[in-house]
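Slide 14.
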Amino acid sequence: MQTYISLVKFTQHGLQTMKEKGIERAEMVKQNAKALGGKLVQAYYCLGEYDVVAVWEFPDNKTAMKAAVMNASMGHIEITTMPAIGRDEWKALLGETIGKRR
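Slide 15: predicted structure.
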């Protein structure tokens, strides 16, 4: 599984209906990913430019895109999703790309 990071902003509609539907929608977002073979690893609710930072696992980019579209189509969020790799994998990639310095 590949790792993805989503930066999420609540829409005005999402904020206006948070009390009635917020928890239900959060569960739907998680279930949408699961139905596509993905997994919500963790979600962090934030202050600042983004309301949520989510860490996901999906089989591939197309599946991650499908989940983002499904979740954004509910109308309560705007979402930017990007593939990510962990630090150890990045270090290995860097070593392969620019070689080891002596």
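Speaker note: The domain at 2-98 is CATH 3.30.70.1060 (Alpha-Beta Plaits).
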